[in-house]
Amino acid sequence: MIERVAVLCSDEPHHNYLIGLLESRFRVELIVREPMKQQRARALRERRWSDYFYASYHNLRRTLLGLNSYRQKYFEQAPAGPCSRSCELHVKYINDPQVSRVLQKTAPDLTIVMSTSILKQDVLQAAGPRIVNIHGGYLPFYRGNHCFFFALYNRDFGKIASTIHFIDSGIDTGDLIELVVPRVRRDDTAEMLYCRAEKMAIHRLLELMESIRHGGEFPRTPQPFRGTLYRTRDRKIWHDLHSWFRRITGFQQRLIDEWNRHNIEASRNAITQPVGVASTTRPSADI
What we know:
The protein is α/β, with parallel strands linked by helices. The protein has one domain: Rossmann fold (3-Layer(aba) Sandwich). Helices cover about 45% and strands about 15% of the residues. The chain has 10 helices and 9 strands. It has helices at about 15-25, 35-45, 50-65, 65-75, 95-105, 120-125, 145-155, 190-210, 235-250, 250-270, and strands at about 5-10, 30-35, 85-90, 110-115, 130-135, 140-145, 160-165, 175-180, 230. Strands 3-2-1-4-5-7-8 form a 7-stranded mixed beta sheet, with helices on both faces. The longest helix is centred in the C-terminal third of the chain and has 22 residues, at about 190-210. The radius of gyration is 20 Å and the shape is globular. It starts with a strand and ends in a 16-residue tail after the last helix.
Protein backbone atom coordinates (compact mmCIF):
# COMPACT_ATOMS: atom_id res chain seq x y z
CA MET A 1 0.00 0.00 0.00
CA ILE A 2 1.20 3.52 -0.80
CA GLU A 3 -0.35 6.34 1.23
CA ARG A 4 2.55 8.55 2.28
CA VAL A 5 5.25 9.58 -0.21
CA ALA A 6 8.56 11.35 0.40
CA VAL A 7 10.81 12.83 -2.29
CA LEU A 8 14.55 13.41 -1.97
CA CYS A 9 15.78 15.44 -4.92
CA SER A 10 17.65 18.49 -6.12
CA ASP A 11 16.31 21.65 -7.74
CA GLU A 12 16.24 20.70 -11.42
CA PRO A 13 13.17 21.18 -13.69
CA HIS A 14 12.45 17.45 -13.96
CA HIS A 15 12.38 17.20 -10.18
CA ASN A 16 9.67 19.87 -10.09
CA TYR A 17 7.85 17.97 -12.83
CA LEU A 18 7.95 14.77 -10.79
CA ILE A 19 6.67 16.56 -7.68
CA GLY A 20 3.83 18.20 -9.59
CA LEU A 21 2.66 14.85 -10.96
CA LEU A 22 2.95 13.17 -7.58
CA GLU A 23 0.96 15.88 -5.83
CA SER A 24 -1.83 15.53 -8.38
CA ARG A 25 -2.27 11.82 -7.53
CA PHE A 26 -0.70 10.98 -4.18
CA ARG A 27 -0.23 12.35 -0.70
CA VAL A 28 3.23 13.88 -0.72
CA GLU A 29 4.22 14.26 2.93
CA LEU A 30 7.80 15.41 2.58
CA ILE A 31 10.16 16.96 0.03
CA VAL A 32 13.86 17.30 0.81
CA ARG A 33 15.95 19.25 -1.67
CA GLU A 34 19.73 19.22 -1.92
CA PRO A 35 20.39 21.97 -4.51
CA MET A 36 23.04 21.43 -7.15
CA LYS A 37 24.80 24.58 -5.96
CA GLN A 38 25.16 23.03 -2.51
CA GLN A 39 26.52 19.81 -3.98
CA ARG A 40 29.25 21.79 -5.74
CA ALA A 41 29.95 23.85 -2.61
CA ARG A 42 30.37 20.70 -0.53
CA ALA A 43 32.96 19.37 -2.98
CA LEU A 44 34.85 22.65 -2.50
CA ARG A 45 34.59 22.50 1.31
CA GLU A 46 35.86 18.92 1.30
CA ARG A 47 38.73 19.89 -1.02
CA ARG A 48 37.68 17.47 -3.71
CA TRP A 49 39.23 19.76 -6.27
CA SER A 50 38.65 17.59 -9.34
CA ASP A 51 34.98 17.04 -8.47
CA TYR A 52 34.48 20.76 -7.87
CA PHE A 53 36.25 21.81 -11.08
CA TYR A 54 34.32 19.45 -13.34
CA ALA A 55 30.97 20.11 -11.65
CA SER A 56 31.56 23.85 -12.18
CA TYR A 57 32.77 23.28 -15.74
CA HIS A 58 29.68 21.28 -16.66
CA ASN A 59 27.37 23.83 -15.05
CA LEU A 60 29.05 26.62 -17.07
CA ARG A 61 28.99 24.50 -20.25
CA ARG A 62 25.28 23.79 -19.83
CA THR A 63 24.50 27.46 -19.24
CA LEU A 64 26.51 28.74 -22.23
CA LEU A 65 25.13 26.09 -24.61
CA GLY A 66 21.52 26.67 -23.53
CA LEU A 67 21.06 23.16 -22.14
CA ASN A 68 19.67 24.41 -18.83
CA SER A 69 17.13 26.50 -20.75
CA TYR A 70 16.25 23.50 -22.94
CA ARG A 71 15.58 21.31 -19.89
CA GLN A 72 13.54 24.05 -18.22
CA LYS A 73 11.33 24.40 -21.29
CA TYR A 74 11.02 20.63 -21.78
CA PHE A 75 9.62 20.13 -18.28
CA GLU A 76 7.64 23.35 -17.92
CA GLN A 77 4.26 21.65 -18.38
CA ALA A 78 4.23 20.01 -14.95
CA PRO A 79 0.67 19.82 -13.59
CA ALA A 80 -0.10 21.82 -10.48
CA GLY A 81 -0.79 19.56 -7.52
CA PRO A 82 -3.15 20.28 -4.63
CA CYS A 83 -0.19 21.30 -2.41
CA SER A 84 -0.75 18.28 -0.18
CA ARG A 85 2.81 18.21 1.15
CA SER A 86 3.25 18.92 4.83
CA CYS A 87 6.94 19.82 4.76
CA GLU A 88 9.61 20.99 2.31
CA LEU A 89 13.16 21.05 3.57
CA HIS A 90 16.23 22.52 1.83
CA VAL A 91 19.54 21.15 3.04
CA LYS A 92 23.22 21.59 2.25
CA TYR A 93 23.75 17.83 2.39
CA ILE A 94 21.23 15.05 1.93
CA ASN A 95 22.85 13.06 4.75
CA ASP A 96 22.46 15.84 7.31
CA PRO A 97 21.11 14.34 10.58
CA GLN A 98 17.95 16.44 10.32
CA VAL A 99 17.02 14.55 7.13
CA SER A 100 17.02 11.25 9.01
CA ARG A 101 14.96 12.76 11.81
CA VAL A 102 12.29 14.21 9.56
CA LEU A 103 12.09 10.99 7.52
CA GLN A 104 11.57 8.96 10.70
CA LYS A 105 8.81 11.34 11.75
CA THR A 106 7.18 11.17 8.30
CA ALA A 107 7.38 7.36 8.03
CA PRO A 108 6.82 7.25 4.23
CA ASP A 109 5.51 4.15 2.48
CA LEU A 110 7.62 5.11 -0.55
CA THR A 111 10.64 7.39 -0.89
CA ILE A 112 11.58 8.55 -4.39
CA VAL A 113 15.12 9.77 -5.00
CA MET A 114 16.48 11.82 -7.92
CA SER A 115 19.91 13.45 -8.33
CA THR A 116 21.02 13.69 -4.71
CA SER A 117 24.36 12.75 -3.24
CA ILE A 118 24.75 9.07 -2.35
CA LEU A 119 22.52 8.22 0.63
CA LYS A 120 24.27 6.98 3.76
CA GLN A 121 22.98 4.29 6.08
CA ASP A 122 21.12 6.56 8.53
CA VAL A 123 19.03 8.10 5.74
CA LEU A 124 18.49 4.73 4.06
CA GLN A 125 17.13 3.25 7.28
CA ALA A 126 14.88 6.24 7.93
CA ALA A 127 13.51 6.41 4.38
CA GLY A 128 11.13 3.49 4.84
CA PRO A 129 10.53 0.08 3.31
CA ARG A 130 10.67 1.22 -0.33
CA ILE A 131 13.35 3.57 -1.65
CA VAL A 132 13.21 4.00 -5.42
CA ASN A 133 15.48 5.93 -7.76
CA ILE A 134 15.00 7.18 -11.31
CA HIS A 135 18.49 6.83 -12.74
CA GLY A 136 19.48 8.47 -16.00
CA GLY A 137 21.29 5.49 -17.45
CA TYR A 138 20.91 1.89 -18.63
CA LEU A 139 21.61 -0.33 -15.61
CA PRO A 140 23.63 -2.32 -14.92
CA PHE A 141 25.86 -1.18 -17.80
CA TYR A 142 25.93 2.58 -17.14
CA ARG A 143 26.06 3.72 -13.53
CA GLY A 144 26.72 7.16 -12.07
CA ASN A 145 26.57 10.41 -14.06
CA HIS A 146 26.55 11.46 -17.73
CA CYS A 147 25.39 7.99 -18.76
CA PHE A 148 23.51 9.17 -21.86
CA PHE A 149 26.55 11.09 -23.02
CA PHE A 150 28.90 8.15 -22.57
CA ALA A 151 26.50 5.70 -24.22
CA LEU A 152 26.43 7.99 -27.29
CA TYR A 153 30.16 8.55 -27.08
CA ASN A 154 30.78 4.79 -26.93
CA ARG A 155 28.39 4.27 -29.88
CA ASP A 156 26.41 2.03 -27.55
CA PHE A 157 23.00 3.08 -28.89
CA GLY A 158 21.28 -0.02 -27.58
CA LYS A 159 22.16 0.95 -24.01
CA ILE A 160 20.37 4.29 -23.82
CA ALA A 161 17.65 4.31 -21.17
CA SER A 162 16.52 5.56 -17.79
CA THR A 163 16.18 2.93 -15.09
CA ILE A 164 13.68 2.73 -12.23
CA HIS A 165 15.34 0.75 -9.47
CA PHE A 166 15.53 0.21 -5.74
CA ILE A 167 18.29 1.93 -3.81
CA ASP A 168 20.76 0.02 -1.68
CA SER A 169 24.06 1.06 -0.10
CA GLY A 170 25.92 0.94 -3.44
CA ILE A 171 25.98 3.41 -6.31
CA ASP A 172 23.16 2.46 -8.71
CA THR A 173 23.43 -1.22 -7.71
CA GLY A 174 19.93 -1.85 -6.31
CA ASP A 175 17.41 -4.29 -7.74
CA LEU A 176 15.85 -3.30 -11.07
CA ILE A 177 12.19 -2.39 -11.42
CA GLU A 178 12.02 -1.36 -15.08
CA LEU A 179 14.11 0.01 -17.94
CA VAL A 180 12.52 2.87 -19.87
CA VAL A 181 13.97 3.07 -23.38
CA PRO A 182 13.47 6.13 -25.63
CA ARG A 183 13.74 6.03 -29.38
CA VAL A 184 17.12 7.21 -30.64
CA ARG A 185 16.82 9.68 -33.51
CA ARG A 186 19.61 10.77 -35.83
CA ASP A 187 19.84 14.35 -34.51
CA ASP A 188 19.50 13.48 -30.84
CA THR A 189 21.96 14.85 -28.33
CA ALA A 190 22.60 13.42 -24.88
CA GLU A 191 20.47 16.18 -23.38
CA MET A 192 17.52 15.45 -25.69
CA LEU A 193 17.66 11.75 -24.91
CA TYR A 194 18.05 12.36 -21.19
CA CYS A 195 15.03 14.68 -20.99
CA ARG A 196 12.88 12.36 -23.10
CA ALA A 197 13.78 9.25 -21.12
CA GLU A 198 13.46 10.93 -17.71
CA LYS A 199 9.97 12.21 -18.53
CA MET A 200 8.97 8.75 -19.74
CA ALA A 201 10.41 7.18 -16.58
CA ILE A 202 8.56 9.62 -14.32
CA HIS A 203 5.24 8.76 -15.96
CA ARG A 204 6.03 5.05 -15.88
CA LEU A 205 6.86 5.19 -12.17
CA LEU A 206 3.51 6.81 -11.43
CA GLU A 207 1.76 4.11 -13.46
CA LEU A 208 3.49 1.46 -11.39
CA MET A 209 2.60 3.30 -8.18
CA GLU A 210 -1.06 3.42 -9.20
CA SER A 211 -1.06 -0.30 -9.94
CA ILE A 212 0.19 -1.19 -6.46
CA ARG A 213 -1.48 1.64 -4.59
CA HIS A 214 -3.85 -0.60 -2.68
CA GLY A 215 -1.71 -3.71 -2.52
CA GLY A 216 0.96 -5.64 -4.38
CA GLU A 217 4.58 -4.76 -4.97
CA PHE A 218 6.97 -3.39 -7.56
CA PRO A 219 8.61 -5.97 -9.82
CA ARG A 220 12.12 -6.68 -8.60
CA THR A 221 15.10 -8.20 -10.42
CA PRO A 222 18.64 -8.27 -8.98
CA GLN A 223 21.30 -6.73 -11.19
CA PRO A 224 23.38 -9.56 -12.69
CA PHE A 225 26.67 -7.62 -12.46
CA ARG A 226 28.08 -4.18 -11.79
CA GLY A 227 28.72 -2.16 -14.91
CA THR A 228 30.95 0.86 -15.44
CA LEU A 229 30.65 3.73 -12.95
CA TYR A 230 30.94 7.15 -14.60
CA ARG A 231 31.65 10.10 -12.33
CA THR A 232 31.19 13.78 -13.14
CA ARG A 233 34.97 14.20 -13.33
CA ASP A 234 35.22 11.37 -15.89
CA ARG A 235 33.68 13.55 -18.61
CA LYS A 236 36.65 15.65 -19.66
CA ILE A 237 36.71 18.71 -21.88
CA TRP A 238 38.29 16.69 -24.69
CA HIS A 239 35.35 14.25 -24.54
CA ASP A 240 33.02 17.17 -25.29
CA LEU A 241 35.23 18.47 -28.10
CA HIS A 242 35.45 15.02 -29.67
CA SER A 243 31.67 14.55 -29.41
CA TRP A 244 31.06 18.01 -30.92
CA PHE A 245 33.39 17.21 -33.84
CA ARG A 246 31.58 13.93 -34.55
CA ARG A 247 28.26 15.78 -34.64
CA ILE A 248 29.29 18.64 -36.92
CA THR A 249 30.90 16.20 -39.38
CA GLY A 250 27.72 14.07 -39.43
CA PHE A 251 29.61 11.00 -38.24
CA GLN A 252 27.34 10.34 -35.25
CA GLN A 253 24.20 10.83 -37.34
CA ARG A 254 25.41 8.25 -39.85
CA LEU A 255 26.10 5.77 -37.04
CA ILE A 256 22.62 6.26 -35.61
CA ASP A 257 21.03 5.88 -39.05
CA GLU A 258 22.90 2.62 -39.56
CA TRP A 259 21.89 1.35 -36.13
CA ASN A 260 18.23 2.24 -36.70
CA ARG A 261 18.23 0.50 -40.10
CA HIS A 262 19.63 -2.62 -38.48
CA ASN A 263 16.89 -2.55 -35.82
CA ILE A 264 14.15 -2.08 -38.41
CA GLU A 265 15.45 -5.03 -40.43
CA ALA A 266 15.71 -7.15 -37.29
CA SER A 267 12.12 -6.26 -36.34
CA ARG A 268 10.85 -7.19 -39.81
CA ASN A 269 12.67 -10.51 -39.67
CA ALA A 270 11.24 -11.19 -36.22
CA ILE A 271 7.69 -10.94 -37.62
CA THR A 272 8.37 -13.86 -39.94
CA GLN A 273 10.19 -15.96 -37.36
CA PRO A 274 8.47 -19.02 -35.89
CA VAL A 275 7.23 -18.97 -32.31
CA GLY A 276 10.09 -19.38 -29.84
CA VAL A 277 12.65 -17.31 -31.76
CA ALA A 278 13.69 -14.22 -29.83
CA SER A 279 12.87 -10.84 -31.38
CA THR A 280 14.36 -7.40 -30.90
CA THR A 281 13.19 -5.49 -27.84
CA ARG A 282 11.32 -2.35 -28.93
CA PRO A 283 11.65 1.05 -27.26
CA SER A 284 8.96 2.38 -24.96
CA ALA A 285 6.49 4.87 -26.44
CA ASP A 286 7.78 8.46 -26.28
CA ILE A 287 5.96 11.15 -24.33
